Amino acid sequence: MENVKEAKDIRQDNQDIKYIIMDKIIHIKKINRYNQDLIGQMLSVSQPRVSDLLAKKTDKFSIDILLDYLRVFGWSLNLSMSKTGKLQVKLDKISPNFTGITYSHK
């Protein structure tokens, strides 16, 4: 029974991580006033895929791909466990990883 609880905890941690990454990307979109087309160009994905991302459809994304998206915008994610076994998440600013895109606010 303990293994079932641990598996459930891991699934919840995965969901939490996905939400944290998606929230950060949504925040980046808002403060930079990016539209979905531009985000799609930056991430090399279609507009419907961006829509799923911004709607926080976590079941459509792996943590790995979300981490790749986060790096494009210049952020990394560090995970650790507290002494009590609680997952700790920290976002760190890094150099953005997109090139060749020009965008102007109008």
From TrEMBL:
<dbReference type="Pfam" id="PF13744">
    <property type="entry name" value="HTH_37"/>
</dbReference>
<protein>
    <recommendedName>
        <fullName>HigA2-like helix-turn-helix domain-containing protein</fullName>
    </recommendedName>
</protein>
<dbReference type="InterPro" id="IPR039554">
    <property type="entry name" value="HigA2-like_HTH"/>
</dbReference>
<feature type="domain" description="HigA2-like helix-turn-helix">
    <location>
        <begin position="10"/>
        <end position="81"/>
    </location>
</feature>
<dbReference type="GO" id="GO:0003677">
    <property type="term" value="F:DNA binding"/>
</dbReference>
<dbReference type="InterPro" id="IPR010982">
    <property type="entry name" value="Lambda_DNA-bd_dom_sf"/>
</dbReference>
